[in-house]
Amino acid sequence: MTDQPESRPLNPSSGRVLVLLDGSRLSLLALEAAAEIAAVRGAEVLGVFVEEVDVLRSAGYGFAREVGASSGATRPLDSAMMEMRLRGLADQARRSLEQAVGGRGLRQALKLCRGSVIHEVLGLATPDDLVVMGRAGWSAMPGSRLGSTARGLIRKAPGDVLLWTDLKPRQRNRVVVLLNDDQLENHRTLSAAMELARRHRQPLTVLVRSERAGNPDAVRAIEQQLAAHDASARIRVIPRASALQIARLLREESAGQLVLSRQCSVFDEHDMDRLVVELNLPITVTS
């Protein structure tokens, strides 16, 4: 497959918005979010459509079957039919990208690849790029688990990753940033949260996971960072709780968006899946 001709040359060093397109409902919602972010940043948008080589290989086996997502009915997985379907999805991705981005006067391109989604995206993304994607693909529903592609990219992407969901942030909700008390020098995560709060005109909450009750040193360090950016936030020091307890705290805060670093201990404790199942909100994972 070939790339879509670009209207203007892309400049990878300036920090693009990469959005993964697979024809699913969540990927189209993620595209709208990516276009809004790119418009605010004045960034270029690169749509990425990947033909999964494993799926194509599977279609070559006579015993391969696909199962209808809603009906549960099985039918043969035919390679020619799969190729035709992928071409149709690629055309849909191109039209959707032009519709979402073209009217905003932003530079755009569609990259068509064949291989593994994670491998292809990692080959395209730079540390300055933001990767935007639905948190799962075709079967995504509120409460569904984190998709394998999303799970791989939030751990391996060189820059920030935004996992989009089917709920848009509301002004009355809060942007919540989750930090460990040993991450207070990671200004990128707090800066990303402050940017989101300003863009959506939402209040900001900083949750600091600490074994030290109250932890005045952590509170003071965060207050200094906020003051340096003329920002304010509610700061809460919390114990190193489980995913279910964190989800409860986020609901108490009326969280509309969550921001955390991939160095956050939530990842070490394999709680990210549980957190995603409990919450239906956009999650930004910073490097």
TrEMBL record:
The residues covered by the UspA domain are 16-163
User: Into which family does the record put it?
Assistant: Belongs to the universal stress protein A family.
> What protein name does the entry list?
Universal stress protein
The organism encoding this protein is: Marinobacter koreensis
Q: What is the lineage of its organism?
A: Bacteria, Pseudomonadati, Pseudomonadota, Gammaproteobacteria, Pseudomonadales
